[in-house]
């Protein structure tokens, strides 16, 4: 006889939403030469971050401020909102878990898109809620169908990413604003804007009015290059933001993470430069795709979905061959989307390695098909 | 109409297990001169940590290894166990939340001691389980009564800290081992050893045999001085350790946190030195107590509970006056224990400030009583 997991926990698989790059390296016994699969920001973080952390090294023994006060004030000032509109957490992943826990329970319905962020789905399953998925349409999340699902199913939560992962597609701000307006007021919209800083200004709807049924998710892991420190935040109405205080780990956002995020937020020039590098890299991926007879989908993110021109099995073979050539990328898994591979932007050297490896991968995938 | 919290979330207060030191400073408008309330390690972290982080600063953009492979290997080697016996998480606080989520559900009973770690209780409430508390006996958690409660109530989880927080007391290893042996096999013992590195070797039971119903909780936040990076780990049987994979944030332990913890673990000489400084400081707090006609309770931790010689109201007045003098400490809140204040060890200068402030605080508390 041993301790028993809860019935819900018993029903869950031991799973990981993404098999990590290091796990893959350990499995193959070979390191990747290019790390272009995690939508990380290989252009790195502002040097001010490391400077601030070095300055604060003598405070490594301090628990973080449980209210992330200074960071929330800085984010509020930056965004023209109040600190009461901001919850800071251990990355968007951590915040998504808390949102699901707060608003969905066994028996609840949650709506997302088929092929959208698996870590959100992981949390939905983890709290025993039922996930209803809506197919993408023309490689975008289907706002009309999502709205229809919201009206019909009255879900507790609806998840939408804009710009989208894994396709890099987006809806213009005014259409997202209209979607928010039309959404039933008792449905919580989790609007994941992890890639927002990479998008043209016309993509992100205004933060005002702040609606009681919308949470905007932002992160320091992408444009700010701080995936290695783990900090995300949610923007919403004070009553929703306060609800996090019921369940969050109050001392979960470490002192050094707060130091790092504050420093990153203070370096606008660096952020702008990263976005410029990113745009150039995105264009380079378009060129590489064309040179190989492939179509790169338009992207408002730091990655590009490349249509490999055939089916999911073909794209999977391309990915596998790239992995054999020690190039780490990922790919969408849902029907239709799965014809693509997903390549993150990164430093020139790594993109060159990808460019070199791609023709061989395509040839290998083609010959295997015959 | 707005999105509705789950019934469970509705029932929870917006609460924080501890009001943070920075929150208190903002409320009073004055910084503390001595930070001796959080059981942090004011002696700091190994300089190797900052060095390793500086070396790894160029990797700040990388998500952490989702398996914390290198850290788990190092911990396994250090402890003579297998990496399969180790789960790494966002501090013990984060791991406690996961344990409660995995093993307790609404309707479950969980046993702890009255006055023991409030963050554990916070998680128990947060997942809707029922908390049954057993009073301390002679300022120690009452093993016999806890065992009795385990037998009678058949709880899902039983929490025990050894050495104990907030009293600093402990049970010898052989008595804890006997307790584990006697515990019903279907009760999960969460044995919190956050302060274990400060305790004499005779306090921590051997890690072997690793029992399927025991999880040993350890941290880098105390002896290793890394509260500002947030890393804890659980040691247990592989089947229990694997269960974390069902619900944990797989990428929650950041890359830089793993770098920091590995570096800290590699500096034994520093750890030994910290423990020596801590022992000297503990002795100093005993002397200061005696000089003020008070009794410092024996402690196997990095803090000392000082019996203020009267009741809880008196000790609260002492704490409040110390706060007015800008000295941050905490105190136990449960009956009987609450006659004490709890003072963390720290650098000489801060202890001197406490020594200077204490007589005034005692005088003020006495005069207020008349």
Automatic annotation (TrEMBL), chains A, B:
- Class of the enzyme per the UniProt entry, highest EC level: transferase
InterPro entries recorded: Aminotrans_II_pyridoxalP_BS (IPR001917), Aminotransferase_I/II_large (IPR004839), HistidinolP_aminotransfase (IPR050106), PyrdxlP-dep_Trfase (IPR015424), PyrdxlP-dep_Trfase_major (IPR015421), PyrdxlP-dep_Trfase_small (IPR015422)
- Note the PROSITE patterns from the entry: AA_TRANSFER_CLASS_2 (PS00599)
Annotated GO MF terms: histidinol-phosphate transaminase activity; pyridoxal phosphate binding
Q: In which pathway does it act?
A: Amino-acid biosynthesis; L-histidine biosynthesis; L-histidine from 5-phospho-alpha-D-ribose 1-diphosphate: step 7/9
Protein family per UniProt? Belongs to the class-II pyridoxal-phosphate-dependent aminotransferase family. Histidinol-phosphate aminotransferase subfamily.
Origin organism is Tianweitania sediminis
Q: Give the enzyme's EC designation.
A: 2.6.1.9
**Cofactors demanded by this protein:** pyridoxal 5'-phosphate
Q: Which reaction does it catalyse?
A: L-histidinol phosphate + 2-oxoglutarate = 3-(imidazol-4-yl)-2-oxopropyl phosphate + L-glutamate
The processes (GO biological process) annotated in the record are:
L-histidine biosynthetic process
Keywords attached to this Swiss-Prot or TrEMBL record, sorted alphabetically, are: Amino-acid biosynthesis, Aminotransferase, Histidine biosynthesis, Pyridoxal phosphate, Transferase
UniProt xrefs under SUPFAM superfamilies: PLP-dependent transferases
Mind telling me what this protein is named? Answer: histidinol-phosphate transaminase
At the top level of its lineage, which domain of life is listed?
Bacteria
Residues covered by the Aminotransferase class I/classII large domain = 36-358
């Amino acid at each position: 006889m041993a301790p028993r997991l809860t019935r819900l926990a018993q029903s869950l698989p031991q799973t990981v939403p993404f098999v990590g790059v290091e796990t893959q390296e350990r499995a193959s016994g070979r390191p990747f030469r290019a790390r272009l699969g995690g939508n990380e920001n290989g252009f790195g973080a502002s040097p001010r971050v490391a400077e601030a952390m070095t300055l604060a090294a003598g405070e490594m023994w301090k628990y973080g401020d449980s209210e992330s006060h200074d960071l929330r004030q800085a984010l509020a000032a930056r965004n023209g909102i109040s600190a009461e509109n901001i919850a800071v957490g251990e990355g968007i992943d951590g915040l998504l878990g808390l949102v699901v826990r707060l608003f969905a329970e066994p028996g609840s319905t949650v709506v997302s898109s088929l092929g959208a962020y698996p870590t959100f789905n992981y949390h939905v399953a983890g709290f025993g809620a039922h996930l209803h998925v809506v197919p993408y349409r023309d490689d975008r999340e289907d706002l009309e169908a999502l709205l229809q699902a919201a009206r019909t199913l009255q879900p507790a939560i609806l998840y939408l990413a804009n710009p989208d992962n894994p396709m890099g597609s987006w809806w213009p701000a005014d259409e997202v604003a209209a979607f928010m307006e039309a959404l039933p007021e008792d449905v919580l919209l989790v609007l994941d804007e992890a890639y927002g800083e990479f998008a043209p200004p016309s993509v992100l709807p205004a933060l005002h009015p702040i609606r009681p049924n919308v949470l905007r998710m932002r992160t320091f892991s992408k444009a700010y290059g701080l995936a290695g420190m783990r900090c995300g935040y949610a923007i919403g109405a004070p009553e929703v933001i306060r609800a996090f205080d019921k369940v969050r780990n109050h001392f979960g956002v470490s002192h050094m993470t707060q130091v790092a995020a504050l420093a990153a937020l203070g370096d606008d020039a660096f952020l702008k430069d990263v976005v410029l590098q990113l745009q150039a890299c995105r264009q380079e991926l378009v060129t590489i795709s064309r040179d190989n007879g492939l179509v790169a989908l338009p992207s408002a993110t730091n990655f590009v979905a490349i249509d490999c021109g055939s089916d999911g099995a073909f794209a999977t073979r391309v990915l596998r061959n790239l992995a054999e050539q020690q190039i780490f990328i990922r790919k969408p898994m849902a029907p239709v989307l799965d014809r693509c591979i997903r390549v993150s932007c990164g430093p020139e050297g790594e993109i060159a390695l990808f460019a070199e490896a791609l023709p061989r991968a395509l040839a290998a995938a083609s010959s295997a098909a015959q």
